[in-house]
Structures
1.
Amino acid sequence: MELGSKPLTSGSFPLGKAAKGYCGCIDRIAPCEDCPGLPAQEIERRLIELGFVEGAEVTILHEGLFGRDPIAVRLNGATVALRRREAMAILTR
Amino acid sequence: MADGTQQSLHRLALVGVPNCGKTALFNALTGSRQKVGNYAGVTVERKVGTLRTPLGRNLEVVDLPGTYSLRARSPDEEVTRDMVLGQRAHESPPDLLLAVADATNMRSALRLVLELKRTGRPMVLVLNMFDIAQHRGIEIDIPALEAGLGIPVIPATAVRKAGMQALWEKLDALAAEGLPQATENNWTPPGALELRAAQRQADRLINAAVRPPAKPHTLTNRVDNVLLHPVAGLVILLTILFVMFQAVFTWATPLMDLISLGFDGLAALVGATLPAGLVQSFLQNGVIAGVGSVIVFLPQILILFLFILLLEDLGYMARAAFLMDRIMGGAGLHGRAFIPLLSSFACAIPGIMAARVIDNRRDRLTTMLVAPLMTCSARIPVYTLIISAFIPHRSVLGVLSLQGLVMFGLYVAGIVSALAVSLAVKMMFWRRAPSPPFMLELPDYKMPRLKSVAIGLYTRGRIFLKRAGTTIFMATVVIWVLATFPGPPPGATEPAITYSFAAMIGNLIHPLLAPLGFNWQISVALVPGMAAREVAVAGLGTVYAISGGGDAQIGHVLASQWSLATALALLAWYIFAPQCISTLAVIRREAGGAKWMWLTFGYMLALAYVAAFVTYQGAVLLGWG
């Protein structure tokens, strides 16, 4: 059994790159550490507060007109809107 | 009866995540017995009401700003944290927390409840919208939830009288028995690990106590397939906006005419009963004209807020922010700035106040800075006066009226300049700072409830009237004094205002305004026009000594006295000019400093000057001087 700190598996796919209709299971929340914007820690907490926790299933329902951004995802019975930039931190499989 | 180990119940606080129906519950508990103000020292809306239980106990209830966590990332959320922890100065801590959860979507709410439990405060969980959950076939095992959370859980439907029964009984029972003593506060700001653990615990509880329906609810999804469609969604949003403006400008007109008639009648009555003199002039030109010129906008503001409240209750506003995020983001604005900027078309004051929904300070300030550029309804009297006097009544391409096109152009100029200014602000001050995240829940669609919309409208209307009665009244009094004293010397032939302080100021600034094609009369009229834009119309009437004449008569005189270039320059001036003391006062309060007020005043004045200068000189070159 290899639980605990799981390394980034090659199968992890960032939600921010997924197309409309994509459905996946959240593997990890891994905000980019050096990206501009809020500290990675804060992005992680905000994502968890909206319900993005490991194991949850997400489906991309809608996307915006320009740059297909932002996206609206279905997450355990709720709909959440976020930009693709933040969705890059959500790794799914 | 309360004994030594128990506390009696006097004060409750409603806590919950955004969109859980907290406000509907607050309305159901208090009815219209609400007081809306601000928390001391911050511009966070403080909503307190009193409720009367069936057994006749009076309790005070506070509606705290919605939050996902007590971590507090905005001023609103700080208020919630401090109130829950009993750390807010000048506020007694609540005896009981009423945690509110949407029964159809409990995940984040239960995580918040687990966090709130660590504060040790007595708490009851209210499962709101219980009827919708039942209707959708969601089965909730309340005893299991109570056991898992260790607090009482009450199902409720805030929008139905019968749905509140259980909660009323519980409140009466708690008031009679007394509350358990608050235990030790173990709360510390949760990190990602704690939040994750709490969410897992909440999910386990939900798995054990809630059985989802066999057939999932899909209505919201199906509606969203149309309303959030990349193209159709934007078209529908624009259509809604179009209908909204039509309504604001056409439905309100009869009511506004009625209000002006009423104030005119009142002024005439004062004129007839009081002897001519200072008192009569003060009441007529100061109080009645000044306050009347503001109250006349009440119908427009109410109609605008009717739309905003309906769209908000329906769950559409979050979607509008979603659709507009990228478009507004291009200009350095947050998707949520859409609502404040929209409100600013009626009046910048509610617009600037609505900017509170933006939790990032930088985005909030940018929104407040550009909100006054949106064409507010106070500009309309000035625009209509000048357009009808100078722009020929002619049709373009057979169907469009030239006057209407000029009006439309002025609106577009306002929007474009707001976007340009926010882009410039971003480039100048915050070039390196990255834009904050846009993340929000899109709530399920719900039918708006008449009662909650009515309460919302009543509250907005009252706030507006209160402001008209205080700040704006004071401003009009000051301006009246400037325009009245010193009085004309005996045997004076010119209108009285030409001898007043206002005229002195006007003459002083006239050389500065001459390059814009403004004559001394306009310069003088701009002084009383500082109180509110539309007052300049009355100011022009006074300067040109048109007694008792309507706007049509003023327009007639103007058309014979001004060149087209002057008229166009004045229109350009009014797109930008910061001529509204109340807006500036609100910016100062909401932005938390006079610095922002002066910045707004300065940049708008500069833009107004440049725009009017370019317009006038250009028009003169075209031979319209």
Note: The longest strand of chain B covers residues 45-52.
2.
Amino acid sequence: MITAALAAPAAIWLFLFLILPFCAMLVFAFGKRAPEGGYQAAFTLEQFANLPSRAAAFWNTLVLAPIGALLCLLVAYPVAYYLAVKAPPQRRMILVALIVVPFWTSLLVRTYAWMYILGSRGLPNLLDLVGIADVRMLNTPGAVLLGIVYGYLPLMIMPIYVSLEKLDLRLLDASADLGARPASTFFGVTVPLSMPGVITGVALVTILLLGEYLIPQLLGGGKVFFIGNALVDLFLQSRNWPFGSAIAVTMVAVVVIVLAVSMRIAWRFAGARRVDLV
Amino acid sequence: MTKHRTTPITAAELTAEFMRLKRGSVTRRHFLGVTGLGLAAAVAGGRTGSFVREAHAEDLGSQMSLATWPNYHDPASFEAFTAKTGVAIEVNVFGSNEEMLAKLQAGGTGWDLFVPTNYTISTYAKLGLIDPLDLAKLPNYSAASESVRFSNEGTVDGTTYAVPKNWGTTGMAANTSKLKTPITSWKDFFEVAQTEADGRAMVHDYQLTTIGNALVSLGHSFNSIDPAELSKAEELLIKVKPHLFAINSDYQPGMRAGDAWLTMCWTNDGAQLNRDIPEIAYTLGTDGGEIWSDFYAIPKSAANKPAGYALLDFLKTPENAVKEHVANGTPTTDSRVLALLPAELTSNKIVYPDEAALTVLEFGAAVTLTDPGRAEVMARFKSA
């Protein structure tokens, strides 16, 4: 009874703001664009038939989001490892705060700053001074990936840090005593034990990236297009709500499938290694 | 409207007013206004300012919202309005009329005044998204001194829905210190964008001008909705896209930083860029392009219409309008303002091109705003 009462607010919230809107989207996806834009009731599959025209945006999203998440992981892991294992405990909280504090500034402002760093008067200008001329950085897929790694880094560091913090350092000593080299201790003991954090971080960042709009818009110059950008265009420029809904529904389906499969693989891998250890 | 008194109220009058309020025969606002208690409360609440200003602020609220275009106003105008009325202005900047329409159709914009372009007014009126203007609330607007060529689309079936802000053209701005090829037509524009200006050219994030100018470069009308012609334009745009620096209607930052050397450009941005960086030249297409006028209109959904009218009247007041034109570099539609403009503006060929250069230009057509073909071509071009 008490459990039900406590769960009710969350359930009502989810119903009103997740389930209902999703149902509306589903209905819209089978409709038609009204003559002046918006939605007109109909039952047609023409929106879904038009999906291939946005293949490039789907492809960009499904390729750049996981690559961005993996780059994030490569940068975040050493930082989280240093924080949790190597950093002096009395300085740990300060270091964690230093990572979190930039998050208090709007992502928009921080991404704008990158526009100036990557623009002609920023890094390319410095490279020009040392003889590397005509480097273009802004409005390229590389710039978008850089912005993604920068923007999402704290979201990757934190879960990994939390799981590494619980790491029993005596296990590392035991591994060394049994003759393992540092590298095999790291890959055989530390990494498997931090897998819950890694999987959480990668899943969190990937899911958020699949809906990313701002970073490709600002650092991709409107040329590096994610599904998020295609959706904004369809709702806020073309006013083609049914097609936008069809894309959104498809994206939800794709994300669910991708996540279900990758999580299963990831957990099987992590679970297997953990059994080995015990 | 509540009358404000300049003499202190007597105890007997105060009591009488209080009884009227209690009986419900006057509103609370009237009571606070007539007794001066509203002012007292406002002053006690830490608001300063003259009595006159307070009298305005009570009717106009303390803030309003304006939807407009990039680099389009003198910030000093807004500060002067706020100083005069106590109403703070929140400015929202847009890159296309389609974006403004989409926001208004979706609802909940909160705009009290916005700046739509000529070809959109009839659709807004038809969809019931804008109010007919109550010209009695715009004492400083003078229909008689407005140029008919630029103001006629503000009137739909005899009803005035919008009054002109300024007119202008859509041409191209080129950094002549970087680009040696002369660029005089939209045909040149798209060729240079793929060659000498590779990675340095910008097009608007706006179907009307980006598709329109591509159509013009192929010898078609700026306003075409013919599927065969649109598909040719789409082909050209998708071919040019890998060579572009960006698709963005706010191109001044890119041009100023030197990231972009060539861009589709509106009169005002052309004048501002050329004023600050003389090597950036502004040219009209000899093969065609757009001539336009922007208007002020009040959304039906506006929450603070009194403030919308007040700002509109303020900006249409010739002395204030002059400052706007000097700051943003657009030509005026109002002969009263023209007479006040400094000669360096009226003799500026970017702002006031020769009439002969305008003859090939077309006004945007209403049909392009809602045509699904144009919308989809633009969306496909961007997501390609």
Note: The CA atoms of residues 74 and 379 of chain B lie 33 Å apart.
3.
Amino acid sequence: MAVAIGSGDALLRVRDLGVAFAGQGAPVTAVNNASFELHAGEVLGIVGESGSGKSVTLRAIMGLLPATASITGSVRFDGQEILGMDPESLRQMRGRSLSMIFQNPSSHLDPLMTIGRQVAEPLLQHEKMRPAKARESAIKILGEVRIDRPEQRAANYPHQLSGGMKQRAMIASAIACRPRLLLADEPTTALDVTVQAHILALLADLNRSRGLSMVLVSHDLAVIAQVCDRVVVMKDGEVVEQGAAGKLVTTPQHPYTQRLIESQPGRLAAVAAAPTVAITDSPLLEIRNLGVQFRLPRTGLLRPKALLKAVDDVSIGLQRGETLGIVGESGSGKSTVARAIMGLETPAQGDVLLDGRSIRAGRLAGQPDFRRRIQMAFQNPFDSLNPRFTVRQTIVEPLRKHRLVPADRFDARVAELMALVELDPRLADRKPGQLSGGQCQRVGIARALAMEPEILIADEITSALDVTIQAQIIELLNRLRSQTGLSIIFISHDLALVRSFCHRVAVFEAGRVVEAGNVEKVLSEPQHPYTQTLIASVPEL
Amino acid sequence: MTRAYWLLQRLTQLLPVLLGISVICFALLQMIPGDPARIILGSRASPEAVAAMRDRLGLDQPALQQYLTYMSKVIRGDFGESISYKVPVSKLILEHAPVTGFLAVYVIALAVPIALILGMLAARYRGTWVDHLIRMLSVLGMTMPVFWLAILMLRLFSIDLGWFPVSGYGQGFLGHLHHLFLPAVSISIWMIPVLVRNLRASIVQQSVADYVLAGRAKGLTERHIFTHHILKNASLPTLNLFGVLVAYLIGGTVIVELVYALPGLGLLMFNAILGRDYPIIQGLTLFYALATVVITLVTDILSGLIDPRVKA
């Protein structure tokens, strides 16, 4: 990793790169005047939020932009100008001299072709290897990216592999022809944090052992800071700052970089002043020995249908005014718990008590309003809103259905709720397609608050948002709980976020709570090995 | 999941379908309004003849008993006896099936290669005059009624030009090819556009898939990406549509068989309906249903061979 910067010629030199897309009306500028360089053996990070032009920059380097893009400036790889190069010469460089991996390994692998063949493809194409030899090499490379039992895995199809395995396979196919430069576009964003740690370690190892230079693009500054020598910060298509990773993080110069660092979940200062909560014996919501099971399809004629214990013997309580964090990786059962509390899943065992009364029995005993008292906000801000409803219609719907306010007060109440979540009242007649992700999430929260709930279940509500927007939403929730005494169940995969926002935390693994307690105590002195792994996997600034 | 188990599972799923089909075919005869025996024999039949027919059809027994008798006969290949031809229905079906079968295979052999080529061309040259021309021809082919086209072609190529025979099935393989050419073309002209439009749409959809971009990033040639990745993925929806079309084709040749006087199943069905030959109608309905089931199963197995996720 230690490379004398500025010595000799750069492997990759990007000068005044500009990319604009022709559309209806004026062309849209995606990248403007971007300049940076990368030396052989170096790992360069490009960090930025959605729409900053970081992915477009990578694609411009690879010559993978559609014909509608007009590209200006200069991209020199190993002294050769890439922009304007004829397509055939460029194709011969791709996969052999420079290569690229992508965010979502599931969609970037062909579902109908075995992993082994997809890794062998560039070898067949560029090195004209015989199929048997290419297959052998592919298995060797799969081993090098630390896929266990590579001979067997080579014969597997993508759907038979886990997300992390698929990403390894994609890396294997990108480095099969031993390129000098690897461009990685958000390579760990779709992965769990422990898997992310493994993939980042693998990339760092490839950099060291093979001298593979890398450009790593990510929205996550902590990831970038962990593996990169130098960092380029992009915003709205422009490079706003660049420099050595350590220096950029400790002494950021540009205001945007400063804001980016302040927005990091571990550094959210506003939240430290959360109201304290007394732990009582009679919690507002009590989850008692909850178990939820799913039936898996039969795998053989005589084999019984297997049961998946999505949630297994979980007991936690939520105090009035408390914020309880639920952390875990995908498939750990954290969303299933939320669905069980909402009455959307029927528990196989155990119970959920609201104010000491069972939610299950309560529904039968004429307590239909438990749904009103517990409301939920969802992960994907666009998908959880009806695209045909305006903001007003979305918020009015629960008011009307539950007859919460008389019809003539709808508009006033909508205005109140929009003000509560800090939405501009002029947005009331817009539809989700005309709103940003952060605005949509605010609408989702306003809709939940329309029911005047005592408990808000927030299921990964910030994971689809940019980090600066995430900081705003967290600030909003913080203000809401101080003002209204709202109790929150905050489900997240982000330990740093939970640490800065929650009172207590429950760590989920494979449907069980492995550790629970005061957030500071659990996260600074984790007792359970899984919690320790989880914490060790989180990249820090 | 193993391939054998998957296949077994598919076959077990067919059992209720087959049972349903048999009940419906059985009920066809039961649902004839009035006394089936009298309707079959006509209004001038003597009471003795009607009684004899009732006895032969087993109409005096309870419905369940009748169904079981019917089923045990069907399983042994006995579909009853035709009223007008006085021969077993199964014999009639076996005599007429080759004509329809030959016609169906002929249509497939004509339509599939042409549809593949046109679909690929339309997708490859999307938005150019090639695409527009193929689309225009497709709309024309789809909207033209098959019977009208059949009559038109018969008139031009058989009567005026004398290139093809006016009717019949012909002798030997070449004879069949010659005799069935116009009928096969008439059906293909309707079938090709349906396949072309489906294939074009699914190629266009697949060519913006992420794995295509990843293939380009690996430096694969456009030709390789198309033949090894896009085409295979795009063929799946079209294959399923094709299965439905073939199943429809087996039962849908009646109009063409009528116009070209082909002694196929369609003509047999047509005459049976006119002559109220209920055993033939019943037998053919069962045969068509079974053919549909078999074709659907074959389509499923084929997509399972292409797509490993089907068995997941």
Note: Chain B has a mean pLDDT of 87.
